[in-house]
Amino acid sequence: METLPLVDPAALEALTEDLGVPGMSLQFARDYAAMWGQRQARLRESVQQADLDAALDAVISLKVTSAMVGGSRLAYLAQALEAALREGDLQQAPTLLSLIVLHGQETMAELQRRYDLACP
Prior knowledge:
This protein is 76% helix and 0% strand. It is an all-alpha fold and 120 residues long. The N and C termini lie far apart (29 Å).
């Protein structure tokens, strides 16, 4: 996992090509980073309350959007948490959640640094 980049610029470049609208992918990255606090809170609460449906919804959303913006490490961790939740492994969930929070903060900082995102 540590060998995965925090941010893979190729993913955002591919999104730019797919959208075909200049600046739209940077707006997506900006919105993604701005929503980090809400995403992690929703995920943390649902895991702590053992609400599997809400936790799966939150972690899948995180996995997909992280992959789209190039957050490879965060997408990997979200995938691991999704797998644990699907298996009903709530004992592994807190460790994975802690890693998601740590690497999520690092990913947001890297996105802001790399793309000069002005996020609230």
